[in-house]
């Protein structure tokens, strides 16, 4: 349990045996943050040993789990991912790949997977393609990661992205691509990856994240203009949208809030009280620069609103005359059932409040969102179809809300296999 840099320091990594590996990172959520649920999940089956890392959430895991438990299966975790391993172990197909495909054909929802067997690395994306996965090469070996920025960090070249519904098997350095599933009626890549979740230096399925965010800011400035002296981003995720807003509106861009780089992301703090404290520690406004100024404060999204209440208060205490909040996505009105840890519908500030009411709650002079039509217009320029269910309430894979296992699979995948022949 802990941060990657604290746990996997160089000394520990050196002691790990083996020729190839997968890794899995997730942040602590309000759900069951327990070492038993840490992935990769490992099991010895009669098809061989298997380790699995899963990004996304299954929407029918509870029903399958109940059925399997009724037939004597014993689960070690509360994670939805374990269902996949149980189905694989019980499949009567001949080869490992056939058993895996048999297992996967029973689950529904979001699953980008990396699996390690005794002799292969297997990577796959669900037919809807909710979550990303990219393939790269490093010194003749194959690597796979959720975001291309991970490939950049280790000096790997980006070869390509997995298609929705594609299964890639890498064995003895050779890559085989399978497309065993019927195509979903449309690809529904998570648009929130572009808005907030991914790093801006990543390309998601061939689309640059930073460019997307700037475009959201530009459209927002056209849709929701306001007279002001400066555009200020909520760092870091609001930066791209704020730059786009400033460019389009002609209002100067200023980083008038300084971010303390040495404090961990507030999103990893499960308790609301510690999250409030984190905001105060993390952001510091430039007193003496903000006095008497009219600010457009640009944020990528609002979930509960807690962070914005604090930041608007900080700007006012630093002397800002007006604070106008502009949000570079539509109101978040529904939870995500496909692997992003958004809170329940009741906890979302946009559920049951108009933008005017939210503005009053957070203490701003005005507040406005990018429209759903505006976001969809930008989304149509992407090289893939998108899911925008948390903004539109149009869920592309039907949800039985009683079935969804608590959010446990929020992470990034990194995998590597040595090329025996290299
Ligand atoms: S519901 Fe929202 S967060 Fe979840 S996959 Fe769809 S767009 Fe992404």
Distinct ligands, ions and cofactors found in the model: iron/sulfur cluster
| Amino- and carboxy-terminal Cα gap | 35 Å
Shape: elongated
Look at the structure and give the mean pLDDT: 88
Largest sheet: 6 strands, antiparallel
What class do helices, strands and sheet pairing give?
Answer: alpha+beta
What is the CATH third-level topology name of the largest domain? Glutamine Phosphoribosylpyrophosphate, subunit 1, domain 1
Number of helices: 14
Please give the CATH class of the largest domain: Alpha Beta
Low-pLDDT stretches: 266-270, 405-412, 416-422
**Overall tally of structural domains:** 2
Largest sheet strand order: 2-3-4-5-9-10
Radius of gyration: 22 Å
Describe this structure in words.
By secondary structure, the chain is α+β, with helices and mostly antiparallel strands. It is 29% helix and 23% strand. The protein is built from 14 helices and 21 strands. The chain has two domains: 188 residues, Aminohydrolase, N-terminal nucleophile (Ntn) domain (Glutamine Phosphoribosylpyrophosphate, subunit 1, domain 1, 4-Layer Sandwich); 180 residues, Rossmann fold, CATH 3.40.50.2020. The C terminus is likely disordered. Helix 4 packs across helix 5, helix 8 crosses helix 9 and helix 10 runs parallel beside helix 11. The strands form six sheets. The protein has a six-stranded antiparallel sheet, with helices on one face. The protein has a five-stranded antiparallel sheet with strand order 1-21-7-6-8, with helices on one face.
């Amino acid at each position: 349990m802990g941060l990657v840099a604290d746990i996997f320091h160089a000394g520990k990594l050196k002691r790990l045996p083996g020729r190839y590996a997968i890794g899995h990172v997730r942040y602590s959520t309000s759900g069951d943050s327990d070492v038993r649920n840490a992935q990769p999940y490992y099991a010895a089956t009669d098809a061989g040993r298997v380790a699995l890392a899963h990004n996304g959430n299954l929407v029918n895991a509870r029903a399958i789990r109940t059925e399997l438990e009724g037939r004597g299966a014993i689960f070690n975790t509360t994670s939805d991912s374990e269902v996949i391993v149980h189905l694989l172990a019980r499949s009567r197909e001949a080869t490992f790949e056939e058993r895996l495909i048999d297992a996967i054909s029973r689950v529904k929802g979001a699953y980008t997977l990396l699996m390690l067997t005794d002799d292969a690395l297997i990577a796959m994306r669900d037919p809807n393609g909710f979550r990303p996965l990219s393939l790269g090469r490093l010194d003749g070996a194959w690597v796979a990661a959720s975001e291309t920025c991970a490939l950049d960090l280790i000096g790997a070249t980006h070869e390509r992205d997995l298609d929705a519904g594609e299964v890639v098997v890498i064995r003895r350095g050779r890559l085989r691509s399978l497309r065993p599933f019927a195509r979903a009626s449309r690809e529904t890549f998570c648009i929130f990856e572009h808005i907030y979740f991914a790093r801006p230096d990543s390309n998601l399925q061939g689309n640059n994240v930073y460019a997307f965010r700037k475009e959201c800011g530009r459209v927002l400035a056209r849709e929701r203009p306001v007279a002001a002296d400066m555009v200020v981003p909520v760092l870091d995720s609001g930066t791209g949208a704020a730059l786009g807003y400033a460019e389009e509106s002609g209002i100067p861009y200023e980083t008038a809030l300084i971010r303390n780089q040495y404090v961990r992301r507030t999103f990893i703090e499960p308790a609301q009280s510690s999250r409030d404290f984190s905001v105060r520690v993390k952001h510091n406004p430039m007193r003496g620069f903000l006095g008497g100024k009219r600010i457009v404060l640009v944020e990528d999204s609002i979930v509960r609103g807690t962070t914005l209440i604090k930041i608007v208060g900080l700007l006012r205490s630093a002397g800002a005359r007006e604070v106008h909040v502009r949000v570079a996505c539509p109101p978040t009105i529904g939870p995500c059932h496909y692997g992003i840890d958004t809170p329940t519908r009741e906890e979302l500030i946009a559920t049951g409040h108009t933008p005017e009411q939210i503005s009053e709650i957070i203490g701003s002079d005005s507040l406005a969102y990018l429209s759903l039509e505006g976001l969809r217009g930008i989304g149509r320029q992407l090289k893939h179809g998108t899911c925008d269910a948390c903004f539109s309430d149009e869920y592309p894979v039907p949800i039985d809300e009683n079935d969804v296992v608590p959010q446990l699979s929020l992470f990034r995948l990194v995998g590597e296999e040595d090329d025996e022949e290299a």
